[in-house]
Amino acid sequence: MDPGDFEVECRSLFSVLDKTESDSISLDELADFIKEQRIPLSASQVKELLDKVDKNHDGSISYPELREFLFHREQALQQTFSTWHPMRQVGEILRRLLYMLTWAYMCALQMN
Predict the structure, then answer these.
(1) Using DSSP, how many helices (H) and how many strands (E) does the chain show?
(2) Fewer beta carbons under 10 A from the terminal one: N or C of the chain?
(3) 19: Cβ–Cβ under 8 A, 6 or more apart, which residues?
(4) How many domains does one find in the chain?
């Protein structure tokens, strides 16, 4: 993915998650998003996810923290699917879905 596209996707996801426009994602905002996406995580798993992304341990996720976290996930996805041609042609909606679900779901798997 083009670095500019990645930045746009990160900003877009951050805007979706930061419903209060406070320039950070709170535990409640993250929990609401995960619930809206119907991702089966318990309250303690959502907290663990926030803690994993929250590098400065202030109890919320800043844009740089989210971007860094997603960047590493994006690299892993590209390496995994780089030989499968159709994945290089993923449409905008599927790409957004991959970001959101991969971010939450892969973390949930890592916590188990």
Answers:
(1) 5, 0
(2) C
(3) 29, 32
(4) 1
Q: How far apart are CA 3 and CA 14, in angstroms?
A: 16
55-91: pLDDT as tens digits: 999 999 999 998 888 887 766 555 554 554 444 444 4
Question: Residue 32 — very low, low, confident or very high, per pLDDT cuts 50/70/90?
Answer: very high
- Average pLDDT of the chain is 76
Task: Supply the CATH number for residue 86's domain.
Answer: 1.10.238.10
Nearest residue to 111 via CA among 40, 57, 56, 60: 40
- CA 6, CA 56: separation in Å to the nearest integer? 23
Q: Which two tokens stand for residue 25?
A: 């994602």
Where is mean pLDDT largest: 6-10, 81-85, 106-110? Answer: 6-10
**Contact (CB, 8 A) for 3 and 74:** no
The owner of tokens 């499968």 is: 84
